[in-house]
Design goal:
The chain is α/β, with parallel strands linked by helices. It has a single domain, classed as TIM Barrel (Alpha-Beta Barrel). Helices cover 29% and strands 18% of the residues. The chain has helices at residues 3-8, 19-23, 83-94, 114-122, 147-153, 167-174, 180-193, 213-220, 249-257, 323-327, 334-346, 352-359, 370-373; strands at residues 10-13, 46-50, 100-104, 133-138, 157-161, 198-204, 226-231, 262-269, 275-279, 285-289, 302-305, 310-312, 319-322. Strands 1-13-12-11-2-3-4-5-6-7-10-9-8 form a 13-stranded mixed beta sheet. Helix 3 (83-94) crosses helix 11. The longest helix is centred in the middle third of the chain and has 14 residues, at 180-193. Bound molecules: S-adenosylmethionine (SAM) and iron/sulfur cluster (2 copies). One iron/sulfur cluster binds at residues 55, 57-59, 62-63, 105-107, 139, 161, 371. One iron/sulfur cluster (SF4) binds at residues 55, 57-59, 62-63, 105-107, 139, 161, 371.
């Protein structure tokens, strides 16, 4: 399989195998409560939208240069979903119970005119009639110049990825010539613009950036920014993941607690799957996303939409469902789109991380790359 094929995995049409069953779904779909359940009784609540497969970083754990180098073929412009197509897909998802939309990538701030998309999404409504929550995950380098425009367009919250404060380690983790000071400036600009809450995601890789844990905690304590440490995951096929490169969240937490005692937060697990702890001295909270050591599949309410319009029901999926074909088929109206989406969610049975806990690693040729569907 070529790198490009590997990054996009297999594609299947949505529900073409049993359209009659789809159409025979409960006639009361329009009145469906805000909980469309999958086969494991998990409601559909979040849609993550990848707006570009390109990035100005080459984090070795996500887009290693060996795979995503000079010769990597990114998606051509016409393959990308347009803003109108993304908005229509989001509208269908919101009508089925989604409340949160998160823009991601690749690096989402590389997508031209992103505030225009944000304003289109902000005009949509959830099933309850309120505005959807709109968030962004970014590496932050371009954030300082876009934060205010994004906020004005309706963006509410931002998560910035930052794997170290030391410039040399940051350069190694991002495999870029870019500067940690630009990311910090982006976080400050987001604070000034009133994007709130701001979270910072740090992937911890043993022997590469784990010595940054304490300095990051020191830097963000007391600033109102919630730092979250993420266990290095075996996502995709190109990052040469090994279990021994993972530092369990529990160990990261203990390293912080040696300096600043931590107490379990009263809301121990946020909807975003981080386990939250608070500093005993009142300097805020810190989160841990333990996808490797404490799988949270039973709480996973996320659907992912790739840059070119494929739907993935799991980060570790090997098959994407071709929504773009439906969006570009003029015979498919909004109601049919929504029925197909509902059937897709109802058929969902994914729980990759839980299975991996049982057998250490689940080899899956064709697993989709993180930069293609967003984290
Ligand atoms: N480029 C943006 C960024 O880095 O924030 C958005 C896309 S990135 C794929 C989303 C998140 O996925 C980032 O926080 C990143 O650290 C995380 N991520 C990527 N590869 C990962 C891996 N192998 N293990 C854990 N987290 C990973
Ligand atoms: Fe780019 Fe984000 Fe992946 Fe790093 S984690 S390569 S910044 S998409
Ligand atoms: Fe959700 Fe799949 Fe991750 Fe489990 S492995 S939490 S189902 S994305």
């Amino acid at each position: 399989m070529t790198a490009d094929a590997a990054s996009r995995a297999a594609i299947i049409p949505i529900a073409t195998e049993s359209p009659s069953r789809v159409r025979a779904m409960p006639p009361a779909l329009a009145d469906m409560p805000a909980s469309l359940l999958d086969r494991r009784q998990r409601p559909l609540q979040d849609l993550r939208i990848s707006v570009t497969d390109r990035c100005n970083f080459r984090c070795p754990y996500c887009m290693p240069r060996a795979t995503f180098g000079k010769h990597h073929q990114f998606l051509p412009h016409e393959a990308l979903l347009s803003f109108e197509e993304i908005t229509r897909a989001a509208h269908a998802a919101l009508s089925l119970g989604v409340r949160k939309l998160r823009l991601t990538g690749g690096e989402p701030l590389l997508r031209k005119d992103l505030p225009t998309l944000v304003s289109q999404l902000a005009a949509l409504k959830t099933l309850e009639g309120s505005a959807p929550e709109i968030a962004l995950t970014t590496n932050g380098v371009l954030l300082s110049r876009q934060a205010q425009a994004l906020k004005d367009a309706g963006l509410q919250r931002v998560t910035v990825s930052l794997d170290g404060l030391d410039q040399a380690i940051f350069a190694r983790m991002s495999d870029s010539g870019l500067h940690v000071s630009d990311v910090l400036a982006g976080i400050e600009a987001a604070q000034r613009a009133g994007l709130s809450p701001i979270k910072v995601n740090t992937v911890v890789q043993k022997g590469v950036n784990d010595d940054q844990v304490v300095s990051l905690a020191r830097h963000f304590r007391g600033t109102g920014v919630e730092l979250r440490f993420i266990e290095f995951m075996d996502v995709g096929q190109s990052n040469h993941w090994e279990l021994d490169q993972v530092i369990p969240s529990e160990e990261v937490r203990q390293r912080i607690a040696v300096h600043w005692p931590l107490l379990p937060a009263s809301t121990p697990r946020a909807a975003d799957t981080a386990e939250r702890w608070v500093y005993a001295d009142g300097a805020g909270s810190v989160g841990f996303v333990s996808s490797v050591t404490r799988a949270f599949c039973s709480d996973c309410t996320r659907l992912r939409l790739s840059t070119d319009g494929r739907l993935y029901t799991c980060l570790f999926a090997t098959r994407g469902h071709d929504l773009r074909a439906l969006l570009r088929d003029e015979r498919v109206g909004d109601e049919e789109l929504r029925l197909r989406l509902a059937a897709l969610w109802q058929a969902r049975d994914d729980r990759y991380s839980e299975l991996r806990q049982v057998v250490d690693s689940v080899p899956e040729p064709g697993r989709v790359e993180m930069s293609y569907i967003g984290g």
